[in-house]
What does this fold into?
Amino acid sequence: MSFGFRVDVRGKYALFSRPEMKVERVSYDCMTPSAARGILEAVFWHPGMQFKIDRIYVLNPIKFDNVRRNEVKAKISAANVLKTMNQGGGELCLATSENIQQRAAMVLKDVHYVIDAHFVMTDKANATDNTAKFHEIFQRRLRKGQCYHMPYLGCREFVAEVRPYEANDIQTAYPGQEKDLGFMLYDMDYSNPDDIKPLFFRAVLKNGVLDITKPEVYE
It folds into this structure.
C-alpha cells in the first residue's frame, strides 16, 4: 500500500540544467522528475521509503530569462586529496576569489508547479516503519515548513517555496494544448556504482501536465 499527496512548489527562478549544454547552462522547459523527488526528500527522507513522482502540473506559463552568475571554474583535485592523505600534508584549499568567472544561464522565471507523487516502502524499513507513519510525518513537516535542507529549483541559489496543495482542482497554464518537450533527464541509474548511467524519457506536456506514471526510459 502507498499514500499519495500533492505538493505546491513555486519560486522566482529555476534552472533544471540540460546535460548536453557543456558551458553555458540552459534549463529544461519544466521541472525534471529527479528534481521533484529532490524537493520532497528535502522535506523528509528515510531509507525505509522511496518517493515516486507521478505527475508534474505546470501552473504558470513557461518563461525564460537570461542571467549572469558567478561560478567557480576549478575544483579540488582528487589526486591532491589522495596525496595529502598518504603524505599527511598538502594544499587542499580553493580560493574562490582566484577561480571565479561569470557565466550566462538561461533560466526559468516565475515558476509554479504541483507535484503529484506517492511513496513505497523499501527493504531497508525496520519493523516499526509503516506507510501511515511516514505519510503522517511527511505531511506534518510539510505543513510546518520543516526540511532537512532548503528545497531548491535545480540550483541551490534558486530557493523553492513548498507547501501542501489542498485544492481539489488544478488549473494549469496550458489547457487543451500538447507540447513536446523532447528528451528529458528522468533519473540516474546507480545499480552499478562503477558505471552510473543517466536515464532519459520523452517528455510531453498534455494539458499542462507532465505524466510520468509509466515512462518509457532510455539510456
In short: The chain has a mean pLDDT of 90. The first strand starts at residue 4 and ends at 14.
